[in-house]
Amino acid sequence: MSKNIDQLTVNTIRALSADMVQKANSGHPGKPLGSAPMAYTLWSNHLNIDPKNPKWINRDRFILSAGHASPLIYSLLHLFGYDVNMDDIKGFRQFNTRTPGHPEFGYTDGVEATTGPLGAGLSTAVGMAMAQAHLAAKYNEPDFPVFDNYTFVLSGDGCMMEGITSEASSLAGTLGLGRFIVLYDSNSITIEGSTDLAFHENVRARYEAYGFETFLVEDGNDMEAIDAAITKAKANLNKPSFIEVRTKIGALSPLEGSAKTHGAPLGDDNIVALKENMEYPSMDPFYVDDSVYAHMEALLGEKHDAYLEWEKMFDGYKTAYPEKYAQWVEDNREITMDELFEDASLWEFENKPVATRSLSGFVINRLNKKYNNLFGGAADLAGSTMTLMDGETSFSKDNYAGKNLHFGVREHAMAAMGNGITLYGGLKAYVATFFVFADFLKPMARLSSLMGTPLTYVLTHDSIGVGEDGPTHEPIEQLTMLRAQPNFVTFRPADATETMAGWAVAMTAKSYPVGLILTRQNLPQLENSSKDAIKGGYIISDSDKVDVILIASGSEVSLALDAKVELEKEGVGVRVVSMPSMELFEMQSDEYKESVLPKAVRKRVAIEAASGLSWGKYVGLEGAYLTIDTFGASGKGDVLFKEFGFTVENLVNKVKGIL
Ligand SMILES: Cc1ncc(C[n+]2csc(CCOP(=O)(O)OP(=O)(O)O)c2C)c(N)n1
Ligand SMILES: [Mg+2]
């Protein structure tokens, strides 16, 4: 391969990127111009991919953490033979094209994760590297390196400033994820101008401290130096690697080095000047020289051959280790609701008061016996969230086979890493913390929903029932927050049966994350709770004539049932609906919803120890709320419930008030 063709290909990436932004009159050309040489060097010389098999499990992962540089990855995907054609390139940022403003998982062949929120990509990628390390420990055999892919990240100054990146990198260093490699496009420019304005530390020294091997490439156009650094980084399997590559934003354009190129079209004249500076063979927009396509074809042939070699090795593995192979097939099988329903042992619980967090802990351990690919943990709250798998070891630098993850006190990165593990494949991941700290992981939970990653969030200590820790630890608005998020399923079970139902929803989810919202305090087992909880809402106790419907979730369902007893003594007909999940209820048929909440019954009371905001739809104009719209308080949990009005007497009075 001559150097000229490499340079021409790099310049093609630059030209396409500039043209894309110009045509769309929107986008970010500066970073693609500066980072094209490192991206191309990585993709051509190192990235082990086969666009003919874009979902190949052992492909190297490439994550563009600086998602605003999307023209860069779209140009790469086009040239490297992914399903991104010239019309997509020309349709950059337009409605219904495969080249949306920022990379979106599920839209574009070869895009491994949704990126754009800075730092998200790098942190998600750490999860992918954790998954690879675990699967390698679980499945690889001498002479059969089934899982040995690398995870590469391209990040920028913005990613390096975001706290989530530090969280994730600190863990990656601790875990010694040797196949995790970060390229840092270091151009000392962000939107407002020079990074001197707000960013002063020595980033490489920071990464050194995290436990990375670090490299500096002084000249971002020096592809030999970049190549050498990547080669060394790959060779160090004991530590993750961090390669700072100094570049100029908007390289080779007249605006080189200027923040003006960060997020605005260069302008026609500047694009002509750019192409002249590059000695580009044509001034035509979107020109790709035939020699570039021919070069790519040869290169992709080599990459395909590498894939075929892996496939051959994997075929040998199937024969040499049939049990392991069968396990891998099992790990990738879709779990059905039927199989979970049919296994009675999953649904047997003692009839005594237990906290739903503890019940969830039992369930996790039962599921771990039945399924082999659970992989999860907490942000330093395993004991409190009851998320430890008994008899399993901890995932660590010395033991990647461990299934219990320790994310450290890093909720934000934990959710991103959970997404990354899920995206990698073959594993059923869960993450856990106190529900109130859902605030700390929300941005990445949003990406779970956006990507449709079926990650399970175990969120415990779900109300003022927490008690003595006080208002900082008592969730109020978090349920409303997560319910407001499209494609996120919250599930707040009332007892053991409903807790198992919640886990059944989580285990079978394919296209959305599930948040299990669990109590710290004990709850009684309810006589009529049912597997119907998977429908989100169901009648747990009915009446011949229904004067009023009490709708409650979690710890408040038993209160509603107790109030019913009192109200019926006074001749009031009460239906109690347990609604662990509004989102699942909304997925049911109109007939079902009408059968549970008939429109004709307009006297309804919502009971939930949380913000009432999300209940309006069900309560209507003639109903009432027993909810909490202030912060909680410090005190014993049962005292707080009383003080905040969660008593039979108060609920009965509320009901009488609307009848
Ligand atoms: C979490 C988050 N905050 C803010 C933004 C908006 N934003 C997009 S790019 C950018 C600056 C990024 O700087 P850098 O990574 O150095 O990119 P460059 O200017 O070098 O292209 C900002 C603030 C974002 N995308 N994500
Ligand atoms: Mg920058």
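^ magnesium ion complex. Residues 377 and 406 are 6 Å apart (CA to CA). The chain has a mean pLDDT of 98.
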